[in-house]
Amino acid sequence: MNSDILEVIYTEEQIAKIVERLAKEVHHDYADTVPLVVCVLKGAVIFMTDFVRQYEGTLEMDFMDVSSYNGTESSGEVRIIKDLDASVKNRDVILLEDIVDTGATLKALTSLFRHRGANSVRIVSLFDKPSGRRVDISADYFGVTVPDKFIVGYGLDYNERYRNLPYIGVLKPEVYS
């Protein structure tokens, strides 16, 4: 797998510091509540694991699996594959995502949670790729901005591969072209 990476842009150590900072920022705003942290599967599961271990307060977790990508391109259609087990009604929801790229998935999910009666919905994203944005949405908390390149690792994938890399790297174009 490492031979398919053009360059490493965030090391395992750098990511750990970013996650720790995000957990502290979010906890500061939710210290007096018990938020429902929703992990968007599969990409955010590694981020979720590290985030909740760094979060110093009480929280509840749930998982949602949605799809909007075919290979390297967004289809524009957001499909729910696995819905939440918990109700969001009258809850403060923290939507945890690996990357805000087109924004279509997050816009659809925030609208859905508001429709279901959530008190609040905030987005925490490890990475932000504003160059890919197709809808008007941004994370309330985000780690770092990433370049307009195809990145993998730390949960981010290409055709279900590379998620287990402990760093974020740029995938060589010949791998996906």
UniProtKB/TrEMBL annotation:
Q: What CDD domains does the record tag this protein with?
A: PRTases_typeI
Q: What pathway annotation does it carry?
A: Purine metabolism; GMP biosynthesis via salvage pathway; GMP from guanine: step 1/1; Purine metabolism; IMP biosynthesis via salvage pathway; IMP from hypoxanthine: step 1/1
Q: Which EC numbers characterise this protein's activity in its record?
A: 2.4.2.8
Record localization: Cytoplasm
Q: According to its UniProt record, which reaction does this protein catalyse?
A: IMP + diphosphate = hypoxanthine + 5-phospho-alpha-D-ribose 1-diphosphate; GMP + diphosphate = guanine + 5-phospho-alpha-D-ribose 1-diphosphate
- Main EC class the enzyme belongs to: transferase
Q: Boundaries of each Phosphoribosyltransferase domain copy?
A: 9-158
Quote any Pfam family the record assigns.
Pribosyltran
The family database entries (InterPro entries) matched by this protein are listed as: HGPRT, Hxn_phspho_trans, PRTase-like, PRTase_dom
| Primary location | cytoplasm
Answer yes or no on keyword Ribonucleoprotein.
no
User: What terms describe the molecular function in GO for this protein?
Assistant: glycosyltransferase activity
The cofactor named in the record is: Mg(2+)
Keywords in alphabetical order: Cytoplasm, Glycosyltransferase, Magnesium, Metal-binding, Nucleotide-binding, Purine salvage, Transferase
Instruction: Identify its protein family.
Output: Belongs to the purine/pyrimidine phosphoribosyltransferase family.
NCBIfam families per the UniProt record, alphabetical: HGPRTase
Q: What does this protein do?
A: Purine salvage pathway enzyme that catalyzes the transfer of the ribosyl-5-phosphate group from 5-phospho-alpha-D-ribose 1-diphosphate (PRPP) to the N9 position of the 6-oxopurines hypoxanthine and guanine to form the corresponding ribonucleotides IMP (inosine 5'-monophosphate) and GMP (guanosine 5'-monophosphate), with the release of PPi.
- Protein name as annotated: Hypoxanthine phosphoribosyltransferase
Q: Which organism is it from?
A: Lacticaseibacillus pabuli
- Whichever gene encodes this chain, its name is hpt
